[in-house]
């Protein structure tokens, strides 16, 4: 089970040849859950392969601030539903868990609401449909560090890069993410899982 909530802002060059900047703010919330099968790969029970399947749902909301390019500002909001398959390998010890893997996702963006004009949508490659189905591949690396005196709570560091397997539209998603957070262990028997 995982819940992710992101807020952010970016200031980037205009999509036109004019020198103006675009002030773009976004908020993404998604909750994912799934089932996984894992198998030990060595006698020390420290290397594993894991196969997971799951689903996720949430919403993405974005605004582009009032500017010469978009007088009055713009919004681009939609709901998200996804199904995924996630193979990975990981190393686990009493103080660290490191995993590397990929996630193949089929994502449905629905209930798309925007006030971008047709011309602005075309310039930004934003779909004019009310829904859109895509497939993506995410490559990720993740590390959890657990101090000996606090074996159930750890520091989580992660990196994720996303590739749209059908790059047709700008979808209000990051291509590269770095994260830091907390990890919680439900079971510490044997100090590894």
Structure summarized in a few sentences:
The protein is mainly beta. Helix content is 4%, strand content 64%. The protein contains one helix and eight strands, in the order E-E-E-E-E-H-E-E-E.
Blueprint (SSEs and pairs):
Blueprint: E1 2-13, E2 21-40, E3 47-64, E4 74-92, E5 96-114, H1 118-124, E6 132-145, E7 153-164, E8 176-184
Antiparallel strand pairs: 1-2, 2-3, 3-4, 4-5, 5-6, 6-7, 7-8
Structure description:
It is a single chain. The protein is mainly beta. Helices cover 4% and strands 64% of the residues. The chain is built from one helix and eight strands. It has one helix at 118-124; strands spanning 2-13, 21-40, 47-64, 74-92, 96-114, 132-145, 153-164, 176-184. It is elongated.
Task: Give me the strand/helix succession.
Answer: EEEEEHEEE
Shape: elongated
Largest sheet: 8 strands, antiparallel
CA radius of gyration is: 20 Å
Percent strand: over 45%
Helical stretch tally = 1
Which structural traits does this protein have?
mainly beta
């Amino acid at each position: 089970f995982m819940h992710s909530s992101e807020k952010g802002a970016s200031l980037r060059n205009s999509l036109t040849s004019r020198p103006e900047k675009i002030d773009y703010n976004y908020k993404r919330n998604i909750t994912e859950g799934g089932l996984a099968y894992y198998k030990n790969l060595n006698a020390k029970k420290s290397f594993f392969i894991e196969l997971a399947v799951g689903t996720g749902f949430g919403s993405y909301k974005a605004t582009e601030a009032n500017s010469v390019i978009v007088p009055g500002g713009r919004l681009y909001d939609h709901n998200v539903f996804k199904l995924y398959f996630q193979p990975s390998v990981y190393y686990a010890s009493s103080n660290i868990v490191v995993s590397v893997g990929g996630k193949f996702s089929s994502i449905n963006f629905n209930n798309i609401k925007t006030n971008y004009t047709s011309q602005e949508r075309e310039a930004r490659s934003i779909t004019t449909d009310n829904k859109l189905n895509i497939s993506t591949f995410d490559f990720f690396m993740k590390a959890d560090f657990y101090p000996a005196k606090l074996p159930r709570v750890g520091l989580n560091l992660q990196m994720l890069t996303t590739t749209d397997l059908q790059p047709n539209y700008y979808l209000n998603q990051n291509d590269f993410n770095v994260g830091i957070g907390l990890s919680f262990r439900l079971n510490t028997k044997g100090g590894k899982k």
